[in-house]
Design brief:
Blueprint: E1 2-3, E2 9-10, E3 13-14, E4 17-18, H1 22-29, H2 33-81, E5 88-95, E6 98-104, E7 109-115, E8 118-123, H3 124-185
Length: about 190
């Protein structure tokens, strides 16, 4: 029984063990095949639940990154228009499906939604720095999530293979016992 690539866990997700010798594996755990299969099925369900949570986080980040990039573009456009005397005409959403047009003249600040119905005013430079930092953090988090999902996918595969190996070993053991019992009776 050897662990997959020597990793015992990743961010709280336990690593699955690849089982080479099913009989030794069952003896090591002091389990019969049925108990082992129940344990492995439960572990597989835990992996699936963790995968669903990570996929939801990934979707949220993938939606958040374009929003941050769009905000950065708007702030840079405001900064580019600053001092030119040229007004920026913008359409913004007042509520779902309702838009209003605004004429934005030279401005030194912008207001950013921080979440939980909180909006703060920042200078354009501060807003750019904050948004750039948020973008870098979101991209880094997305990379970690992708790596976690790959690790989880590997664990699911290893667990499914182990379930198949234990099941097949149990079927073969029962057949051998049936053949031995039939030979003994005749």
């Amino acid at each position: 029984m050897a662990s997959s690539s020597g990793v015992t866990e990743r961010r709280g997700i336990p690593a699955a063990s690849f089982v080479e010798d099913v009989q030794a594996y069952l003896a090591h755990l002091s389990l019969d095949a049925n108990s082992s299969l129940v344990f492995l099925q439960e572990r597989l369900q835990q992996y699936k639940q963790a995968e669903m949570k990570l996929l939801a986080q990934q979707r949220d980040l993938q939606a958040k990154i374009p929003d941050i990039e769009k905000c950065l573009d708007v702030v840079s456009t405001l900064q580019a228009k600053k001092g030119t005397g040229e007004a920026l005409i913008a359409d913004f959403e007042v509520s779902e499906g309702i838009y209003s047009r605004a004429c934005i003249e030279d401005t030194d600040s912008v207001c950013l939604w921080l979440g939980a119905n909180v909006m703060l005013e920042y200078s354009c430079e501060e807003a750019t720095a904050l948004l750039q930092n948020n973008l870098e953090n979101a991209k880094a988090s997305l990379e970690v999530l992708v790596a976690d999902l790959q690790f989880l996918s590997d664990q699911v595969t290893i667990t499914q293979v182990t379930i198949a190996r234990v099941y097949n070993w149990d079927v073969q053991k029962r057949r051998t016992q049936q053949v031995a019992a039939a030979a003994k009776d005749s």
